[in-house]
């Protein structure tokens, strides 16, 4: 979303993706959000105009799923436990359901910004 | 300089050239998009995307879907966002509009001549690449709901909708407005667009633009639009009947319609003259009365009474009728006066009245070729009929009508089963069968 990234180059190269994938997996497991039953997109900071608009655009079933996962995570946190065994979110369940919407909204916001600051116009 | 003899030759040639002009086929792109244009010398131009997907093409279980499709015009598509279309249109000084008819839905851009290519491209994207996304659907649905509630509170619109529904039931009888029970989803809309936004159902109509130029623009902008099959609309059948609508309108409304004629037929032109003959229009501002029988009758009743005649023509059917609105206590009298003047016209039409009606009908027809919006409508109808005609040809058709034809038509109308709609305090309003 922001900053300098080599993600695409790494993904494109067989050598680098093979070398770095275990590191990435270790990082995800250390960050621990999957052990609270959350997806990566659930923990993106919500308090910006773009994210709020993106969440508004989610279909209803995605919103319910999101709220359900948040509630589960709160329960884990309150009871000072974490998920174990097959209750831990599986990597294939960690779907990026919000990121494409965020990208769409961000490009719309950027477009609006461009048009609001337009100096000259050519078709 | 032309010598007299050669000038005469040129003059003689003119009608033949014009006739050849009438016979020219409508231009089409390779995937069946029809193109019609009227090249005027004015710097302002307009281009309209007319899609044969009006309310008559709605499936029975998806009433109101055409209304949603209309409001989805100029929304996000694969190439441009709705915001971008709006801003770019503002920057180049254009005006966008959409309208829905029973036959077709129309997207129009009015702009300067040099910006026509931009809007043709936008139209191509609208047809092939509109995203129909869920979050836009919510705003479209609330627009639709507010347009419906405006329509519902307007007595005139409610009467006209009820009139069509009673006269034709399905097809042309479908309402232009979504029903309160309309249960339209985004996937229904996608399916409706896939079936109807196809080459064979599209016409691109321009004013102030050259037809060959518009055809080549259409060729590139609509190149990736599916040609589709040319499915004909279900033929319209006239039924007739009576509907009473309870409404809080301060005035009582009575509309009585009969089976009319399809637009462009000789009978339709005769009906135009009959309409002018009965009249009801006020040509002088604030005048209490006019010269036509309906205007005189309304003047006698007073207190804001209005009586008029209407003649709606569609591709395969028509509706001719009388409309009276007045205070509840006098609306029966107004409606009776209207029916009586139609009955009188069925008996005989005086030469003087006929002359006035003919002149008014001719002026009305000719002036429809003058404004941009009505020219677009005429050109679109011609494009779908596959035949062109000019203002002078339409006038010729009107001039061919005799006074006898008009009274014959009036008698024929009175023989068809009437469609009656009354609206207002129904307990005080008359019943349809009391007029005849």
Give your account of this protein's structure.
The complex is a heterodimer of chains A (123) and B (436). With 123 residues, chain A is mainly α. Chain A has five helices and no strands. Chain B is an alpha+beta fold. Helix content of chain B is 46%, strand content 17%. In chain B, the strands form two sheets. In chain B, strands 1-2-6-3-5-4 form a six-stranded mixed β-sheet, with helices on both faces. In chain B, strands 7-11-8-10-9 form a five-stranded mixed β-sheet, sandwiched between helices. In chain B, a hairpin with a 4-residue loop joins strand 4 and strand 5. The N terminus of chain B is likely disordered. Chain B: This is Cytochrome b-c1 complex subunit 2, mitochondrial. Chain B: Keywords: Electron transport, Membrane, Mitochondrion, Mitochondrion inner membrane, Respiratory chain, Transit peptide, Transport.
Sequence-ordered SSE layout with sheet pairings:
The complex is a heterodimer of chains A (123) and B (436).
Chain A: H1 7-12, H2 14-31, H3 49-56, H4 60-78, H5 99-116
Chain B: H1 4-23, E1 27-28, E2 34-38, E3 44-51, H2 65-71, H3 82-91, E4 95-100, E5 105-112, H4 116-129, H5 134-153, H6 155-168, H7 186-196, E6 202-207, H8 211-221, E7 241-246, E8 252-259, H9 266-278, H10 293-301, E9 306-313, E10 318-326, H11 331-347, H12 351-368, H13 372-385, H14 391-399, H15 403-415, E11 419-424
Using the alpha-carbon principal axes, give the shape of chain A: flat
- SSE sequence of chain A, one letter per element: HHHHH
- Which protein chains make the most extensive interface, counting residues with beta carbons within 8 Å of the other chain's beta carbons? A-B, 10 and 12 residues
Stated plainly, the CATH topology of the largest domain in chain B is called: Cytochrome Bc1 Complex, Chain A, domain 1
The gyration radius over C-alpha positions of chain A equals 18 Å
Total count of domains of chain B: 2
CATH class of one domain in chain A: Mainly Alpha
**What structural class results from the helix and strand content of chain B?**
alpha+beta
Assigned CATH class of the largest domain in chain B: Alpha Beta
Based on the structure given, which CATH architecture of the largest domain in chain B is correct?
2-Layer Sandwich
Major sheet details of chain B: 6 strands, mixed
Low-confidence stretches of chain B: 1-24
Order of helices and strands of chain B: HEEEHHEEHHHHEHEEHHEEHHHHHE
Distance between the termini of chain B: 67 Å
Mean pLDDT over all positions of chain B: 89
Q: What is the helix tally of chain A?
A: 5
The overall pLDDT average of chain A reads 90
